[in-house]
Design goal:
It contains 6 helices and 4 strands. It is α+β, with helices and mostly antiparallel strands.
Length: about 120
């Protein structure tokens, strides 16, 4: 498995994690056979996806009139959608790895393989 989080830290692979926790092959060999390391999987996602709604919702409410608020909001969303290529912007948005709630368990065997190779 590649790209995961352990104790809030990001790792590219198990070898990198074992170096971080300073577990070499000899240390791992002395662990009980049922020893595991549980990590959290990651998703590779854009930092932010932009949309007309996203931008329009950030306009200070006080800037809208009280009687035409909904109409003005829709008008702004339409202007943005008609003049901004959100698909292109979002395709160019930088991406990062973010932790998920999905867990992955590395076994003692996995750790030994990673520490030796």
């Amino acid at each position: 498995m590649e790209n995961f989080f352990y104790n809030g830290e990001f790792f590219h692979n198990l070898t990198e994690l074992l170096e971080y926790v300073e577990w070499d092959a000899a240390y791992i060999a002395n662990l009980p056979d049922d020893s595991t390391l549980v990590v959290y999987e990651s998703d590779y996602e854009p930092i932010q996806e932009l949309s007309a709604d996203f931008i329009a919702q950030r306009i200070n409410e006080e800037r809208f009139s009280e009687e035409n608020c909904d109409k003005e909001f829709i008008e702004i969303v339409n202007i943005l959608n008609n003049n901004i290529d959100f698909e292109k912007i979002n395709s160019l948005m930088p991406k990062l790895h973010y932790s998920t709630i999905k867990k992955h368990t590395f076994t003692k065997s996995d750790m030994l393989d990673a520490s030796e190779g």
